[in-house]
Amino acid sequence: xxxxxxxxxxxxxxxxxxxxxxxxxxxxxxxxxxxxxxxxxxxxxxxxxxxxxxxxxxxxxxxxxxxxxxxxxxxxxxxxxxxxxxxxxxxxxxxxxxxxxxxxxxxxxxxxxxxxxxxxxxxxxxxxxxxxxxxxxxxxxxxxxxxxxxxxxxxxxxxxxxxxxxxxxxxxxxxxxxxxxxx
Amino acid sequence: xxxxxxxxxxxxxxxxxxxxxxxxxxxxxxxxxxxxxxxxxxxxxxxxxxxxxxxxxxxxxxxxxxxxxxxxxxxxxxxxxxxxxxxxxxxxxxxxxxxxxxxxxxxxxxxxxxxxxxxxxxxxxxxxxxxxxxxxxxxxxxxxxxxxxxxxxxxxxxxxxxxxxxxxxxxxxxxxxxxxxxxxxxxxxxxxxxxxxxxxxxxxxxxxxxxxxxxxxxxxxxxxxxxxxxxxxxxxxxxxxxxxxxxxxxxxxxxxxxxxxxxxxxxxxxxxxxxxxxxxxxxxxxxxxxxxxxxxxxxxxxxxxxxxxxxxxxxxxxxxxxxxxxxxxxxxxxxxxxxxxxxxxxxxxxxxxx
Lengths: 183, 354
Ligand SMILES: [Zn+2]
Known about the structure:
The structure holds two protein chains of two kinds.
Chain A: H1 2-20, E1 31-36, H2 41-51, E2 56-58, H3 64-67, E3 72-77, H4 81-87, H5 91-107, E4 112-116, H6 125-137, E5 140-144, H7 152-160, E6 163-167, H8 173-180
Parallel strand pairs in A: 1-2, 1-3, 3-4, 4-5, 5-6
Helix pairs in contact in A: 2-8, 5-6, 6-7
Chain B: H1 2-26, E1 41-44, E2 60-65, E3 72-76, H2 84-96, E4 98-101, E5 103-107, E6 128-133, E7 137-142, E8 160-162, E9 168-170, H3 189-203, E10 208-216, E11 224-227, H4 232-244, E12 250-253, H5 262-269, E13 273-281, H6 301-321, E14 328-330, H7 335-341
Parallel strand pairs in B: 3-5, 3-10, 10-13, 11-12
Antiparallel strand pairs in B: 1-2, 2-5, 4-14, 6-7, 8-9, 11-13
The complex binds zinc ion.
């Protein structure tokens, strides 16, 4: 009785998941979550991914080694000079690390999600340069709307054929991740 | 006779003047704070560092004990006396919070020696703000300064100030409470205030400590939550919780180079998870010539106080979720309550409703 109930429950859940699955193929976990610029945004995304049930490995300064086991790559853009300083890396090294991850992910067919979740206060020339780099390789972008008031991310997304989803609140990025991963 | 009378009167006058001076030098500033049912004890910072007693640096400590075992939350306003959203948020906790688990300790005027002084840090700000409470009765609250009144320090400012743990600051920062942590038992008045706070955090076994501040509206720090590294995970949860309520807060990890600041030194010298909040105060904004620190249309005081109180709640909830001993309270307005009602109905009135 209990087993039959469990099976019924499971199949109901499965049907529910299949019905809710978006037309686009869902992204696969585990995701490697890293920061481009060492602001705390990546840490926020890690928490949101956990809450969305997206299995992930979080490493703000991840290199190619950490990409080995990943089935998707989430890069959270946000430049913090103090964050870079605390991590002991300079801006050039950060660009080089991110570019190597993007090139490797692309060559292995690992989808890339670009995220900018700290809004207008986290815009600035270094952040913007990193966004330009990441959006060039990204398949999806999730951006807090107040960081896109000038249409910066809209233009980048159009230029590189990236699916852009805007959220009003940082916390809402979790629901977008949940959908992208078909959870 | 006339002469003798004059001399006697002069002597009495001198005596009174001397008494007045003595009283002035030995009495900390008192404030219009009307503790509510949640307050179970009222102490002083000098309870934790006796030499502060009878100095302008002493300050009231309000203890709200639920009687139900749990953790201890410490909330401090008035580190910078001009950052009044923090002072008012702390005041509302004293007047309205009813703890249901654990304890809350509130010091509304972290640096009580800056409340009667205008350091010219920003011009065009009042020395008092007035809030109308129930029955149309005005209540006044001091608008102090960033730094300790220099009249209360024995020594003039040095050229360069080095904080107890080696932070190097401009000389006048020796009177900035948020540059002198963790303080010194035999230091300047401001350093002794910091020392008393550190002793309070240790002796009261504080689990979560929050220092409430404000910044200029165009400052990068406006609407920011700063967290010590041990508190960073909780800060992330808190910022996301606030975000879900529609309140954007920037997250700023405390850094090693922030020596002398509360989030750095409280976190390093006590077991507390240390946080610092910042809201957007028009009174600290260079671009504003005649700031209205209470009724500014973009950043009115009740909105800023609502943000401070929402941040306190989100921080406590996050810390508890991540394993800190539980603290809970009710009776405190939410951000939405304060946007709807303003501050007046949430401050205690002088009498029951007429
Ligand atoms: Zn401050």
